[in-house]
Amino acid sequence: MEKTTSLEIRNLIKYFHEPETFQVLKGVSFTAKKGEFLSIVGKSGSGKSTLLYVLSTMDTDYEGTLQINGDVLTGKTQNQLAAFRNKHIGFVFQFHYLLPEFSALQNVMLPALKLGKLSTEEIEHKAYESLRLLDLEGQELKNANRLSGGQQQRVAIARALINNPSVIMGDEPTGNLDSKNSRAVQEIFKQLAQEHGQTIICVTHDPDFANNTDRIIEMQDGLIV
Amino acid sequence: MAKSTNIQIARAYLTSKIWQTFVAVLGVTFGVSMYIFMNSFMNGVNKTQDDLAFSALSHIRIYNQDNMNVYNPIESQFNQSKTIINILNRKNIQYTTGLNNSSSIVSSVKKQTEVIAVACQVNSSVFFRSGSKKVNGIISGVELEPEDELFKTSSTIIQGAWNNLQTHKTGIILGKLLAEKLGLQINNSVNVLTSDGVSKNYMVVGIFESNLKTMDETKAYLNITAARQLVGENSDYASDILVNIKDRDNTASFIQKITSMIPYQIESWQEANEQLVAGSELRNIIAIAVSLTILLVAGFGIYNIMNMTINEKIKEIAILKATGFSGNDIMTIFLTQATVIGLLGAIVGVIMGYGMSLLITLVPFTIAGLETLPIFFRAQDFLLAVVFGILTTLIAGYLPSRKASKIDPVIIIRG
Ligand SMILES: Nc1ncnc2c1ncn2[C@@H]1O[C@H](COP(=O)(O)OP(=O)(O)OP(=O)(O)O)[C@@H](O)[C@H]1O
Ligand SMILES: [Mg+2]
To answer: Where are the domains of chain B?
Structure first.
């Protein structure tokens, strides 16, 4: 497997100014290779989520540089970044955010419909497939707010995968799942990394999850140790 | 495909809070329907007023009036200083009034393409006498056909017939109230006394009732030839020539066109009746002000509802943005909602405005020849109502939509 660089951050520094100025990230640098399955661990409050939001391009208020697939993303406009995310990044939030007025299936389909590369039928087929893979068969047409927490989290994972993004990020993507489902998600991630060369970066508190990944990055007080 | 996705999302949002959507649509509906109703009603009123006015008023009147002539040979001759002029018992000369060559003017006016009808009249103020009764009034010598074309006078005849003036050389048609005052019936005889002291007897061959009380009280029609004899004028004489043109709002340009050909005064109905014009304009302003106010209020309602929706959906907007929807997409989603609300409101508003107006025409109102409240529909009112309705919604929807498009997803998602 080729080992080109997928994601690279250089000397990332981030402050929060509310309620008082406070340095969350104190110069974080690391590189993720294409097809690598990474986990980020660390104590609560060490800055894992904050780092992930910067990696995901949603947070643009930082110092340092972020580069994904060779594109420097630091300094791009919000609209450019949105288009980039749509195509290249899949994200599973710490709190599984779905659109409550839409069915599980529609939630999964939306990013692909936005991308507009495949026909609606193809997208639908793909969405069914990936929901089935996540053990959500039969739940596809239920409204998102009628699903259990764990089910919602798996829908969010399916949504993150729909556009075959080159980088998939998760903030405790298995936080709400039982060990069986958690294993299944891990296997899916592993497979995506190995077979499709997708880079996967997950924040986790689960040691089993972490040990199942290619590399563990540990954070402490805004620094990688 | 991305566009239709945005529209799908907009539709989901519109249908998920159907009550809110309904209220927003209702706001526009009220605005649009009130606009149509108010304007159609005011147009109806204006039209009634005009119809009433134009039953006795022509668009243009050509006449020759004795202007106070200031010709003063003495003073212009002896104008050196240190000359004292003292004229005792000065008299003003009576110049002829009226037009002595009416047929040539009529034919040159008739050549204009804008002209619908031209009628000569011989008007004179007289005394009507019957037995011991004596009533002051106006005799109007008319050409039967053109007069009827101008004012539809024949339709006001309640006894006898308009054409009786043609067949009876000494026939006269009296206003209803005038006939009552004089105690006259049809086929009775009435004496007319002019200001020059000429007295003639005529036979009542008809009685008319117009919508104007003063006319019914004072006016009588003669054949124009009989009237010329009565006032002692030649057979080409007319005191007034009345002209109607196709577009009565366009009198100014018509007058400008004919003014060089006609050596007499020409007066448009607007000049003669400024209060009529002012009344119409004022009513139009009220109608527009009221309906625009309603639309404005509706606009605020929509603004509030859209703002509320966006505050409720702030998390979802953040998710959409996180998964790759741009600010423009978000804008499209919410502006689509506004457009749908505007369109729906406008369509229902047009139907409701039309219906409301039709209902109003059922309300009885029996004054001045009316039977029900007047409504007059104009295509432009419907068009403007729709345009204003949609415009208001779009403006009211734009600000919240822009706010939504600027939401920073990370702030919301971080919690
Ligand atoms: N919006 C914010 N404003 C100010 N401070 C913040 C904000 N979000 C997070 N922080 C602070 O930044 C630090 C890092 O937060 P972060 O959410 O990255 O922690 P974490 O490592 O993800 O923790 P957890 O494992 O509990 O999710 C914490 O001390 C937190 O209090
Ligand atoms: Mg966290």
So the answer is: 3-53+276-414, 60-74+94-272
**The complex's ipTM?**
0.90
- The partner residue sitting opposite B324, judged by closest CB among A59, A83, A120, is A83
pLDDT on residue B141? 93
Q: A140-143 — which CB contacts under 8 Å span 24+ positions?
A: A140/A103, A140/A104, A140/A105, A141/A103, A141/A104, A141/A105, A142/A103, A142/A104, A143/A100, A143/A101, A143/A102, A143/A103, A143/A104
Domains, chain A, ordered by start? 33-62+73-224 (3.40.50.300)
Residue for token pair 């003014």:
B259
CA dist A157 and A176 (Å) reads: 12
| B309: pLDDT strictly greater than 80 | yes
**Residue with CA nearest ligand 1 atom 2:** A16
Q: Is B243 exposed, middle or buried (0-12, 13-18, 19+ CB in 10 A)?
A: buried
Q: Could you tell me whether strands B115-130 and B240-245 are parallel, antiparallel, or unpaired per DSSP bridges?
A: antiparallel
Task: Supply the pTM of this predicted model.
Answer: 0.74
pLDDT of amino acid B49? 82
Tens digit of pLDDT for each residue in B236-254?
Answer: 899 999 999 988 888 888 8
Q: How far is B387 from chain A (nearest CA, A)?
A: 32
